[in-house]
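Researcher: Next sequence.
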Amino acid sequence: MAEAATKEFSVVLERQRLAQAPTQTPKTDAGPSLKLDHTVGPPLSWFQRSRRDFQALMGMLAGGTPPTGSWDPVADAEKKAAARKPDTSQVTQPPPKAATAPVDAKKATEERRLAETRRSEPDPKAAADAKVAADAKKAADAKAADEAKKAADAQRLAEARVIAEQKKAEIAKAAEAKRAADAKAAEEARKAADTKPADDAKKVADAKAADEARKAADAQRLAEAMVIAEQKKAEIAKAAADAKRAADAKAADEAKKAADAKAAADAAKAADAKRAADAKAAEKAKKAADAKAAADAKASEAKQVADAKAAEEAKKAADAKAAADAKASEAKRVADAKAAEMKRAVEINSAADAKRAENAKAAQEAKKAAADANRTAEAQAAIDAARAADVKRAAAAKAAVDAAQAAETKRQQAKAAREARTASAENKKVADAKTAAVAGPGTRKAAAPSADHHRKAPAACGAAGTAASLPGWYVVQKGDTLSAIAMRHYGTSRRYGRIRAVNRRAIRNADRIYPCQRIYLPRMARRG
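Model: Next structure:
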């Protein structure tokens, strides 16, 4: 706003300077002349005249008289500058020259250079006065621009009001003319009512339609006038809001700068405090890391010991499971007995744990009784552990004996089977070939066992036909075929070939399996 007002003042000054300039062409041989300073009178008079006009307009709008004797910042600044201005009467100034006197060009140039040199010399007091005058001029410019804006807003509001009043007068005049025309039309209609009733009805209808059209037009014009007035009000309000936003933005900018400076100082303090805290936290973290590393090393050592112990126990368990898988139904019974024995050992350990818990609770009530109970519990636990170890060693020895017996039995069975196959090979060769040709491979039912076969494997027949968990051992029952066994355990008869391949030493012919024969069923192969 201040910049726009300054530009407008410059234009007014230029116009006044051109208006005050002499119309005749100056002589070319007169030489350079001193320029007169017109920057004081015309702008100040323009400011004063604008202030008076604005005050008069505001007084008229308020319904009263314009205020008198108000403060004039320009005049006040001029008075203060004149009071502070030093006495320059003793300073030798170049005498003014008449416009018509002939002057030597070289002398005039020298005098002008001397005057410019004197003007270029710094004068602190004069600079201060010039600064005061410049500040006063800026204040006056800002105030004048504000007053000009307010005057323009008031003028736009007055124009809007005048336009609205004119619209209302036009509407009232049109309504009066309409009422006169309606009265005249009604009189003419009344006179012609006796002669042309049908035409009169039509005319009345036309008049009514015309009346409604005029009413609609009048309402539209009134609405347009109201819209124009509202637009003028909105423009004035927007201009005021823009000025307020500019002032608010300037205040916010200054406040932001102050806040930024304060925030920078606070951030520096916070950074120093944070660095100190970080150093302290780093030292604490280092100590904690050292302690954690020591604890981790100790825990790792304990874990290695536990892992070694667990691996040893797992190896023993795997060996026991392999021995249990290799024996016959008697081995299964022994395994069941061993499981029962282990269960009893677990129960004994659980009872010992419960007893230790009771002893711990009793220790809280009486230290002496707790100590005695703990010693008793530890002695009992040692006895129980020794018993469990003895039972485990006995079970392992028995399992080894049973495994050896089962292996011997298996070798005898294999030998008897080979002898039986060798003795009956010639008699059954034709029947086997015919059966294989008709039924296909892997579909022949298990042959009836011989008396010698039943005699050599009586223990395995107790689990004949029991479904095996994969992988595991299955005991053939009467009527089984490799295809049926594959269908039962794998869901498809095509797996019989895999069963025969795994048991190729025990099953030489896919169509020859015997009741009470143990075959190994492998794990179902995974498909990628």
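Model: The mean pLDDT is 76. The two ends are 81 Å apart (CA to CA).
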